[in-house]
Amino acid sequence: MSAAAAPAPAAAPAPGRARRTAAAWGHRAAPVVLLVLLVAAWQAVVALAEVPPFLLPSPSAVAAEFAEFLPTIASAALITGTNALVGLVVGAVVAIAAAVLASAVRAVDLLLDPVVAGLAVVPIVALAPVLYTMYGASVETGRQIVVAVAVGVPVFVTTLRGLRQVRPVHRDLMRAYAATPRQAVRAVTIPTALPFVFTGLRLASSLAVISAIVAEYFGGPRSGIGSFITTAAAGSNYARAWAYVLGGVLVGLLFYGATSAVERWGTRGVRRG
Amino acid sequence: MTAPTAAGAAPGAPTATAAAVQVTGVGRVFPGEGGRSVTALEHVDLTVGAGEFVSLIGPSGCGKSTLLRLVADLDEPTSGSIAVFGRPAREARLGHDYGIAFQQAGLLPWRTVRANIELPLSLHGVGRGARRERADEMLALVGLTDFADHFPDQLSGGMQQRVAIARALAERPSLLLMDEPFGALDEMTRERLQSELVRICAETQAAVVFVTHSIPEAVFLSDRVVVMSARPGRIAGIVDVGLGRSGSRDDALREDEAYFAAVTAVREALHGGADGVPSRGVETR
Ligand SMILES: Nc1ncnc2c1ncn2[C@@H]1O[C@H](COP(=O)(O)OP(=O)(O)O)[C@@H](O)[C@H]1O
Ligand SMILES: [Mg+2]
């Protein structure tokens, strides 16, 4: 029984795989079905109860506005999306570098700890008006900085946590085999930390779009999704405001999907952490 | 910093005449909080000959792991000295003189079985082809050839431990350090791996320092069993098992009279040492 005792997990029986594929489809389809049902219910409620448009416009009205203003929505989404992307990249790069430094140098860790705690509790979008006056109200820099700061906090925290997950037995192993610090970082530290970094990035991607939109509520150039939402709402074009919100949702989904894909690609070798 | 006994050998190289491990008057005191330090080891002297299989046994907390970590230069003694093949433990570690396996297999979960076994080789700059060839040999040795491309989480605990042993042996070390490598396994798997280890040691001729808390395991595997006592950790006695060289051991030995005599001797050394008070399983904090 010596050889037979060893389980062979690789040989998954075919029916199991079929069931899993079906389950995966159900997994994907369920939220779509739910969404369709919700929109249908929304349409029914608005039509049957004759809800006034300023309370809640019907989905069909929103869809009509969305189609009519598609070019404007698209260009606004492009500007907001660019702000979110620039902020996300800059914020993530700075945060990851800071986390690497903090994990390596104790003094840096002690120094950054209260700073990050402070940044975590400050409502960063509230800084937007200050930044607009600093950088001039006609450029997008202020918004990108808001995004970068908002994004930096979760990326820093998750990266630093990831860098500290190295198991003692792996550390011993690296020392026992006289690995250089560089080798140890490549063989153990980075693969251990990567899943954490990617989780941080995925959380940050949604935060980036939200911050970019909300920052536009506080002034600055009338260019992005957020600015048009406020303008449409102020002009009592409620269905149009919702159409812009829908544009923002799409940008958010795009960011989330893209970072999820990057996460899957980046952790394909380390998925078993 | 050449070994004084190495007359004709290259500087810093392990000498053929030197013992595999030479522990001389070693103590290790861990500084505790509020001045309550822990003396993990005190006045330990031990010699492990080349090719010899020595087990360390004793109640938990008696300093077995600490002693093994000192030999591996994962920790440093507060007194005394340790030589591995005639040179200081640190030089031996930097010279890749030993292979090591822990109670936790400690495989890298993001590497395949093959890549895990190749780890020490790739860290030390062995070329791709040679690495692959050596990994194939090791996979055959531990009977995991069919699992080369699996990931550790697809293996049972016993198989993971076999990978860890293959990794420890990958560089053909003349010294193997093992800290309760079978501690977390069920009895069946344990006995099978013990027999495999006996066979592997006969093939590789490596000296082994093997930490365990199982008397039958220690007796079955070892040429000598070092019995330790706790608080402070010391060597309470050494039992010469003398059941013949590793190669001739098989499962029939487990029912042999000499085997039972050795088990009894180790048990008496374990319990006789500390005023008849059994300290087994007592954690010292
Ligand atoms: N890193 C450490 N710091 C403080 N005390 C330690 C450390 N490692 C071991 N000890 C103490 O040293 C003693 C021996 O531990 P150990 O060598 O792990 O025992 P064993 O392996 O025989 O069970 C114990 O009392 C343990 O608490
Ligand atoms: Mg131990």
From TrEMBL, chain A:
Transmembrane segments: 29-49, 69-102, 114-132, 144-163, 184-214, 241-262
Main location: membrane
One cellular component term from this protein's GO annotations in UniProt: plasma membrane
This protein's UniProt keywords: Cell membrane, Membrane, Transmembrane, Transmembrane helix, Transport
Residue stretches making up the ABC transmembrane type-1 domain: 73-263
Record keyword Metal-binding present: no
Compartment(s) where it occurs, according to its Swiss-Prot or TrEMBL record: Cell membrane
GO BP term, example: transmembrane transport
Membrane topology: Multi-pass membrane protein
Domain of life according to the entry: Bacteria
Family per similarity comment: Belongs to the binding-protein-dependent transport system permease family.
Protein name per its UniProtKB record: ABC transmembrane type-1 domain-containing protein
Annotated source species: Cellulomonas pakistanensis
Phylogenetic classification of the source organism: Bacteria, Bacillati, Actinomycetota, Actinomycetes, Micrococcales
UniProtKB/TrEMBL annotation, chain B:
Residues in ABC transporter domain copies: 21-255
InterPro entries in alphabetical order: AAA+_ATPase, ABC_transporter-like_ATP-bd, ABC_transporter-like_CS, ABC_transporter_ATP-bind, P-loop_NTPase
Source organism, top-level taxon: Bacteria
Entry annotated with the keyword Cytoplasm: no
One GO molecular-function entry: ATP binding
PROSITE patterns linked to this entry: ABC_TRANSPORTER_1, ABC_TRANSPORTER_2
Keyword rRNA-binding belongs to the record: no
UniProt-listed Pfam families: ABC_tran
Native source organism of the sequence: Cellulomonas pakistanensis
The protein's name in its UniProt record: Sulfonate ABC transporter ATP-binding lipoprotein
SUPFAM superfamilies assigned to the protein according to its UniProt record, in alphabetical order: P-loop containing nucleoside triphosphate hydrolases
Keyword terms: ATP-binding, Lipoprotein, Nucleotide-binding, Transport
